[in-house]
Amino acid sequence: MHIRFCVTAVIFCALLVRCSDDPNDGSNCTEGSNCAQVLRCIDDVCVPIDATVNQRTGADVVDDTVSDTGNEDSVADVSDEDSLSDAVDSETASDSTSEEIATEVHKDGTDPDAENLCGNGIVDEGEDCDDQNDDEDDLCHSDCSFTCGDGLLQSIEECDTAIADGEEGACPSSCENAEDCSVASVQGNECAQICVVAPIAECIDGDSCCGFGCNNLEDPECPAVCGNGFVESGETCDPTGTCPTSCNDDNSCTADVLGGELTNCNAVCTFSAIADCADGDGCCPAGCTSASDNDCSASCGNGFVDPSETCDPPESCPESCDDSNACTADTLTGSKANCNIQCSNVAILEPLNGDKCCPAGGNAINDSDCDPVCDNAVLESGESCDPPESCPTLTTCNDSDSCTTDSLTGDAQQCNAACVNEPITAPTDSDSCCPDGANANNDNDCKAQCNNSVLESGESCDPPGTCPSEADCNDNNGCSADSLSGSAAHCNAVCVNTPITLAVNNDGCCPDGANANNDNDCNTSCGNSSVEAGETCDPPDSCPAAADCNDGNSCTADSLTGSAANCNAVCVNAAITLPTNDDGCCPAGANANNDTDCNAQCGNSNLEDGETCDPPESCPTANDCNDNNSCTTDSLTGAAANCNATCINTDITLPANNDGCCPPGANSNNDNDCNANCGNSSVEAGETCDPPSSCPKVLDCNDNNSCTTDTLNGSAANCDAACNNTPITLPANNDGCCPDGANANNDNDCNAQCGNSAIEAGETCDPPDTCSTEVDCNDNNSCTADSITGSAAACNAVCVNLAITLPNNDDGCCPAGANANNDNDCSAQCGNSSVEAGETCDPPGSCPAADDCNDSNNCTTDTLSGSAAACTAVCVNNAIIKCGSADGCCPAGCNNNNDNDCSANCGNSTIESGETCDPPSSCPSAAACNDNQSCTTDTLSGSAANCNALCVNTPITQANNGDGCCPAGANANNDNDCPSICNNGVVEAGETCDPPNSCPNLTSCNDSNSCTVDSVAGSATNCTAACVNTPITQATNGDGCCPAGANANNDNDCNAQCNNG
Fold this sequence. Notes:
Elements: E1 39-42, E2 45-48, H1 81-94, E3 182-187, E4 194-199, E5 254-259, E6 268-273, E7 328-333, E8 342-347, E9 404-409, E10 418-423, E11 480-485, E12 494-499, E13 556-561, E14 570-575, E15 632-637, E16 646-651, E17 708-713, E18 722-727, E19 784-789, E20 798-803, E21 860-865, E22 874-879, E23 936-941, E24 950-955, E25 1012-1017, E26 1026-1031
Antiparallel strand pairs: 1-2, 3-4, 5-6, 7-8, 9-10, 11-12, 13-14, 15-16, 17-18, 19-20, 21-22, 23-24, 25-26
């Protein structure tokens, strides 16, 4: 039996559906228009987007194109293999204008004509297809291979799978959206893949799109549509049959109005409370009386506060005006009988003893009802200062006297802060004070003072009569330099007897360590550890013996000249240069071939026993051993350093990953160096089946599920054939499938269903748990009556909220026209000519203005509290109690420091402008101005009587002998009160240089004369450094000097000179 398929254009009818089942499928079209969402126009005919070209091998069916001339039954409905064959054969026979591809084989795979030739119309082994023609522009090449996948874009292809991504003709792997509110995706398989743009079907707020099939409730970006059964934004009812056509609430005190339009689904009833007083309308609005509305009755007790009333009914009038505030005067006027009771609670502003009130501006001085209060700017009992900012601080307690201990007692926040300044009498380090009787030894705040009979830092003697003189410094030692440092006048005189340690010619001293080489006062001596003229070694035990001349080198001849006793012993080691067998020496240039004393040596360019190469650079390296064969292991034995390097190349026979070799018998499963190979019966990476005969066919892919799209991907020829049963996830009308998530709004294959979370025709909410309940219908508006219609079970529940228009106590609503007097749910309202709770005046015109509050008293602040607009205006005249300048008032407790309206007053314990101390007892005396500093002149200016006494301690700045002061900038040269000081930039007695960085050092003492020894005497630290340049007179090798009397025989620094005797 044969199986035969026919196909139209590029699209194959392998999905086993009739192309004419969809009203648009198979109908005429033009490219890009007239086709349903899941179709596209090819050759002027609408066909399914997901129909694909399938590649099949062996006994599989090969699909190819056949032109459809419009026959509606071009592919018949079939249910089994035989009917499919019959339908296809029938269509093929009836379509004389189509291009036919006969792909005929036996079901058992044998050739009915026993011919295995390409072009015979039978798919033989090794062929992909056979269309019996040589046309290269159809689905089957003349060599019986598929056009799809050959890397060339043919006119019958949308793309070719073998063309690389990014190249023209490559099949898309993904698609970019072509326009707003659409989703682009790849449709079709193999060489029929194209990008298809479909409208967004999801209802999502915030994506700037109205999803396909969505409404304004599901997606606020969709426009409201009147008549769709959904009450959307801007609508009050939908459908129109649910909208009101007339409005009457049977309430004479509301004006009933029908607004909106039925055709726009925004018809609505408005019931507005009547607030204006009008005769004969049957309504007496809140606030109206019989005088303004003949529908009202007027009398005290009618529950309405009429003009001239302050309360109604009488029981709502206050019994007492006591506000429980001792600082108000409470009065009651009017009566309950007349509904005109009014309270007055006037603030007490003036201080008065014994009234239990301490008013604003009162204090413990002027009102016995007040307690002392810190920070009221009044100095009351127990206070030393007030306000706190006028109190002294640790900073202000500083009397600028380093010889007093300054402290603060009390607390500014308690208004009892006070300064304490205690004189310092005991010496204490680092307190900036040097009290009487202290000195630099017991107080580091004191300076050392010469002639106080105390030996202090920087002094060597005190008093001056105990200091040494220059004559006292001579120690009668020829090898010391004697000097006097410092002076008796500064108590720092000291003898310096510096041992001579440096060798200096002609000074009569040969110091320790000197010798005839560096000091002509010394004699040459063997044994003084200094190699002098005529010596080769010193001391004698440092001289070599005959045994010492053996240098352990078999290639030298060793001997000794001179003797240790004369310090002139010398070893002579003569090198052996000629090769000689068995003398123990292998001299330079010899090798194992010409001297038996030599060993084979790598690197001498002689190939000796045990070597494979020499020199080493001629030996192979590891790189040289690479035979460029990935299936051999290349190694190097031996080493060039040993001249025995050799290459070894071993064949690889076992599979191993990452070695670059795929040996015979290996595959990509056991060796990642191998490539997958279709037909080796091993399913490797990138394959789904192997051998090809085990791969699935097109018919195998039909899963008989109307909600999947069934296709065959890959091919048996490439061992990557696989069925793809893609679930239909997007809603689409008339495809027979209602996928998960779809509903009757976006897919006519679905039925409306309460509980599917989609609000469909006839529903107002979905799922039921999102529907309004009686609790949800509470709009939190106390002025509406709330109810519900419909039910959650039917997904049509709707809330109804009707407005309350009549006043009624305790219902939580204060409707339009009601007030606090006739409805306890209302708050007092300013401007209704009734003084209600919380008001001080009403109407606003009766309230005081700011100008009415001026009491013409400079020491009160006159303000208006509240406002006429709020009916709470009241005058407040508060006494000024805080200090403040330029307000014309000097309150009690203030002074000139904190209020320029007050005059300065000596004796008020406050230091004010022009004062330096207050009270007078705190002012300094002349004796107190002595700061015990020898370098200041101490005087007293001002007086305690005027509170302006002030110590002036003027620093001494001029140098002056005998005043006990060495001021800044003075020195021992211009002021005998100053000691010599190193590093003050002045060269004083006992110094050779100053500052220390100007003193000479070894570098600056170098006189560039190789025949002098340059040194530094003294030190820069003591400013006593001086250069000493001693001439060299003794011949000494290697010192760079050839002194007078020396020659090339006794000093290698001398040149040979003819005629020097």
